[in-house]
UniProtKB/TrEMBL annotation, chains A, B:
One of its GO terms (biological process) is proteolysis. GO terms for molecular function: dipeptidase activity; metal ion binding; metallocarboxypeptidase activity. Gene3D superfamilies: 3.50.30.30, Transferrin receptor-like, dimerisation domain, Zn peptidases. It comes from Sinocyclocheilus grahami. InterPro entries: PA_dom_sf (IPR046450), PA_domain (IPR003137), Peptidase_M28 (IPR007484), Peptidase_M28B (IPR039373), TFR-like_dimer_dom (IPR007365), TFR-like_dimer_dom_sf (IPR036757). Its cofactor is Zn(2+). The keyword Hydrolase applies. Residues 395-527 form the Peptidase M28 domain. Residues 664-725 form the Transferrin receptor-like dimerisation domain. It catalyses: Release of an unsubstituted, C-terminal glutamyl residue, typically from Ac-Asp-Glu or folylpoly-gamma-glutamates. The gene is LOC107560856. The chain crosses the membrane at residues 12-31, 37-57. This is glutamate carboxypeptidase II.
Length: 725, 725
């Protein structure tokens, strides 16, 4: 019996746990006050057994099944898979997998990348619709069973074409004595291209606030904390300037609103966006001083279209007013390059910045409000005229129906819309999807058809908040929850030149390792080496002797599929050396300098890295769609849960007083993880003895495997974030 | 393109639509102001096609399936169902169904009812735990594969044993000059029984408010509306008295709080709780003047345990404080019989009541606050000392594992806890479940085992807000959503002596008709007639030539399964003549007079009515568990949707101005219903041609059928009611 008036160990969702872990614990602990951390921990301490009960009950049933004499007699049948086309045996048909991987070729990817990056293709633009039609036509030609354009009407945001956005320094007479650039210098060869959208912060509020400027480093919680509590600088009513990096730009804006700022300017500091010893584009792959990072500044938390949270933005869908829209910032926001940033930064007063705030611009001027030299009474004015408007977007959805289980779906999806040319983001990924579709079509012409249904998606409006992928997920939520086996994301396929990077759900670890052992290393001098070996050599896990795989975070189109719907998901790309290369994403990220040429000249001249990524992504969907028994690994899941539980426990141990005050106990958490671990082990043992000629028995274990990931979602979501389930 | 600033046709969930319809439209339209109705309608107008997309996409796939040459070759197998036990053929094994129905016998049900009603068995009491153990032991003996007690720790509410609840009339000196009874007169034969809980309103707030009394008829919205706006009587700060009936008592209390009342007294008016020409118990089955209706007065909206909404009330679950608990009333509430009510009603002043408020007590005194004759300065005082406390409850859960598809569940569940003896509510139902379990066990000894898993549940604490069933649903939500085929509810099996009453999801209509054609009429003089014929004769549908079947409302244990999880559900019981017998539920409802004898002497002396109900409920679960193709009917679903859509449209037409003002259009709704109708028809046509020897093909269509009901749930729930999905 419990007394409801006592504090008691809290119940939490596993999604919460994953979410918390995805936030990089050390940062989190610095950011939040101890109370806040403990209030989280207090909600966190118990992952109750019933998160695992799906699995455990499943186990009981499986046990019934295998102990039930009747059942072994159900099939006197051995011919199940010996059907005329002789495609599926115990494993995904190996020769076809080999053919499929081989079919994807660097030269083709190069060709696709070139073709898909000639013009800008911003979401909602005619060019992007044209591109959608082109992709539809080519996918049909490649041999998919069907390809459709699926429109939604979502809230997008564009600069006002007749009234450009910029930031000014205004003197005491009100004259604009300095204005930031209206556009980036256009790279060579693209001078005649029209419709290049200038750098802007999508969904910025309109406005012309004018005030003193305050520098807030990265605009993280801990930065504001330091500024306001340690340095005594009040940001309320000021315009603030933050450098890009460390956290999502939308969170910088949210933090700025929380401290009461009037507006926020974002700039790219060379410390975060330039690699040492590399020239700015076009002579190297660093960001030029005139380049700036576009991007949306929403706080959607997975809601999709801000006007239709939870529901697809169809023509007839009810839309909330702009006032009630999800995640729109209430203040003007604007991005600038570092050449312009220097001018603004010179016009501040106040104390000197902490050393670790100085960046490459050596912001030693001063960081707070005030008049720099007593004579300078200049202020900063933002001039922002960006408009929100409901706009039609188009996903391209292609299908290959499954031969045996058409009601099981494996999805390969990535976005098509780009801020400008999208040489890296997203077309390095879209070119890879294109090549996967071509290869699958080629195999079909040889008589292959996957056991399960394959869905290929070219999402629209990812850059505006993952809108295309989220609306489609909302449109088909029930069917996807019942039928989707896995979602593999295909955003940018390359962001560095070092090695492979994979983020995925733990149940995919084993398959990822298996596939990478079947792919060759793309690196020069590594002929005869597998991708696995090359990757392993460069990025070994700290926990075991295998390549490093990360948890899935958020920020790309898998979000609605993984975080909301609980579909096993993963992503793979070529990346930088995460131990030595400290710049955020890649230098030219979301600038006009993301061209075909930057990939062809610097990132992947042979296109073998993109080929390797294509084979990993392609190998994953092939195996997931074609293996009779789903290649998902519950034991890996159990190991990861143990690791997460220990991390949280270690974190909690740093707050012994609060642990005691709130009677926080980890017993139930560890007990639940242990139960899950035992069940997972038993499950896989029995899986080894499964009679794969028994179609219904195979379907039942596959259902258990498919629904494992769903068991970790909570329909109520996180507190205040109903779509993070 | 849409302009977000315009009002536009609204998106609504189908659950909302069903919910609205379940509210009895004519009442609703009276109750709410026009604006409120229109704001609902405005949210209502569009059932978008994507509610049906699960089905429609499924259809496309089925089409692929049947058009895909490969698939017809998958099985060269005809021996699938010809396995040694030869149980399942194209339909649920008919001879076993016949045996199963025959096995359930009136005499046994009589015996169970007698045995299970000897002692009170209130939720949370030792007697109810003892009864749970007894049921577990008998179910094991009957032959179930496993039976377990599943405990939860939930918030219950009991009167204070040393400080009884009552209502007084207090004179101007503060003397209690009249007190209501502390208990009901105990029926003959039960004089020595201890632990009969006196009439009380569970979860009432404590308190001793004292003030003038105001009569509010049934305490519905429209009653308060009439009282306050037409008669000018202000209820704020008063104690109000309402008669039971028409709406759930918890809603009367909610309405009382909304008008600012200090407390509310509930009484049973003979007009609502006595049949004409019938004697009070024990000489007849009417409610005696000393009898009163117990019951909880929560507003849970499906949340289950008030302290753990959304999560199972395990030992380690986080519990909210009582202040944050769901649905607890903030004012004292108490129920009385009509003998006591007369005394209180004499002490009011104010205007005369409207004629239709007078009831059988002929409340012609006066209805408002005031001093009746100018000399009388008496007031009313409530003395309420009821305690809330977290208490352990026990569900009994029994399993028969499925022979072929152990991972598909069919559930027969009803509650065990009773306010006192539970002669009708719930034991008339529990005795029927008991007999079903016995019959199933008997068949298993003959070699039968159902194709799917059967789950039998004896829920606890239904009377306290459907707690046992809801907590178990919360505990197993994911597995149930993935695996549950249907839930059949087994609350009271009899509430009248006229004919059958069935409330169920439209997809079960056809099966209900089929089963009732296999059961004999229990009525004397109808030998040789089927239950279907007897029922049809007495209660023909207004819409077609078939017996009347209602929509499922709420108020019993199916709620979490149907409304929250979207599992196809139904209930069946013997009932009164709904056209002529106007009393609410049945006269002795929730009183001490619900004994074994009232059933044996009046409701069902031959026990053949309960036998018939047992065979209907049993036949439903048997067919659902054992038919190779699930006996669910999408075409019936489509017909019902058409009917609902028309009802809403007719309702809307009564408000043309508001329809215009909010640009309400029904086009999308009707178009979606039409699409669904076509898809349903096509599906059933193809179902007729299904090769039932193809195990995987059968499983795939069954999955479509099983998930159909889920497609009508929305994880976001109704506005403000997250568990009504």
């Amino acid at each position: 019996m419990n007394n409801p008036s006592q504090p008691r160990p809290a119940y939490i969702s596993h999604a919460l746990l994953l979410d918390l872990l995805a936030l990089q614990l050390p940062t989190l602990i610095q950011m939040a006050s101890e109370d806040k951390i403990i209030s989280w921990l207090c909600r966190l301490t118990v992952i109750t057994a019933f998160f695992f009960i799906g699995f455990i009950i499943g186990e009981q049933l499986l046990h019934y099944l295998s102990s039930c004499a009747d059942v072994s007699l159900i099939f006197g049948v051995t011919g199940w898979f010996a059907r005329p086309t002789t495609v599926n045996h115990g494993h995904a048909s190996k020769s076809f997998l080999h053919d499929f991987l081989d079919e994807m070729q660097a030269e083709n990817i190069k060709h696709h990348l070139r073709k898909l990056t000639r013009l800008p293709h911003l979401a909602g633009s005619q060019q992007n619709l044209d591109l959608a039609k082109q992709i539809r036509a080519e996918w049909m030609e490649f041999g998919l069973d069907s390809v459709e354009l699926v429109p939604y009407d979502v809230l997008l945001s564009y600069p006002n074409k007749t009234n450009p956005n910029y930031i000014s320094i205004v003197d005491h007479l009100g004259n604009e004595i300095f204005n930031t650039s209206l556009a980036e210098p256009v790279p060579e060869g693209y001078e005649d291209v029209t419709d290049i959208v200038p750098p802007y912060s999508a969904f910025s509020a309109k406005g012309q606030p004018e005030d003193e400027l305050v520098y807030v480093n990265y605009g993280r919680t801990e930065d504001f904390f330091k500024l306001e509590r340690e340095l005594g600088i009040n940001c309320s009513g000021k315009i603030i300037i933050a450098r890009y990096g460390k956290i999502f730009r939308g969170n910088k804006v949210k933090n700025a609103m929380l401290v009461g700022a009037k507006g926020i300017v974002l700039f790219s500091d060379p410390a975060d966006y330039c690699a040492d010893g590399v020239e700015p584009y076009p002579n190297g792959w660093n960001l030029p001083g005139g380049g700036a990072q576009r991007g949306n500044v929403l706080n959607l938390n997975g809601a999709g279209d801000p006007l239709t949270p939870g529901y697809p933005a169809k023509e007839y869908t009810y839309r909330s007013s702009l006032e009630d829209a999800v995640g729109l910032p209430k203040i003007p926001v604007h991005p600038i390059g570092y050449h312009d940033a220097v001018h603004l930064l010179q016009h501040m007063g106040g104390p000197l910045p902490p050393d670790n705030w100085k960046g490459a611009l050596n912001i030693s001027y001063r960081i707070g409000p005030g008049f720099m030299d007593g004579l300078n009474q200049n202020k900063v004015r933002m001039n922002i005229h960006t408009n929100n408007q409901v706009t039609r977007i188009y996903n391209v959805i292609g299908w290959i129906r499954g031969a045996v289980e058409p009601d099981r779906y494996v999805i390969l999806g990535g976005h098509r819309d780009a801020w400008v040319f999208g040489g890296i983001d997203p077309v390095s990924g879209a070119a890879v999807v294109h090549e996967s579709v071509r290869a699958a079509g080629k195999l079909m012409k040889k008589g292959w058809r996957p056991r399960r249904t394959l869905i290929f998606a070219s999402w629209d409006a990812e850059e505006f908040g993952l809108l295309g992928s989220t609306e489609w997920a909302e449109d088909h939520a029930r069917v996807l929850q019942e039928r989707a086996v896995a979602y593999i994301n295909a955003d940018s396929a390359i962001e560095g030149m070092y090695t492979l990077r994979v983020d995925c759900t733990p149940s995919l670890h084993t398959l990822v390792y298996d596939i990478t052992k079947k792919v060759s290393s793309p690196e020069e001098g590594e002929e005869g080496m597998t991708l696995y070996q090359s990757w392993h050599k460069r990025d070994n896990s700290t926990e075991r002797d295998a390549p490093w795989i990360s948890k899935l975070g958020s920020g790309s189109d898998f979000e609605a599929y993984f975080i909301r719907l609980g579909i096993a998901s993963g992503r793979a790309r070529y990346t930088k050396n995460r131990k030595t290369e400290r710049y955020s994403s890649y230098p030219v990220y979301h600038s006009v300098y993301e061209t075909y040429e930057i990939v062809e000249r610097f990132y992947d001249p042979s296109f073998r890295r993109l080929e390797a990524v294509a084979r990993v992504r392609g190998g994953l969907i092939f195996s997931l769609a074609d293996s009779p028994v789903l290649p998902l690994d519950c034991v890996e899941y159990a190991m990861s849960l143990t690791k997460y539980a220990n991390s949280i426990y270690q974190l909690a141990l740093k707050h012994p007083a609060a642990m005691e005050q709130y009677s926080v106990s980890f017993d139930s958490l560890f007990s639940a993880v242990e139960n899950f671990t035992v069940a997972a082990r038993d499950f896989h043992q029995r899986l080894d003895q499964l009679d794969t000629s028994n179609a219904l028995a195979v379907r039942m274990v596959n259902d258990q495997l498919m629904y494992l990931e769903r068991a970790f979602t909570d329909p109520l979501g996180l507190p205040g974030r109903p779509f993070y389930r």
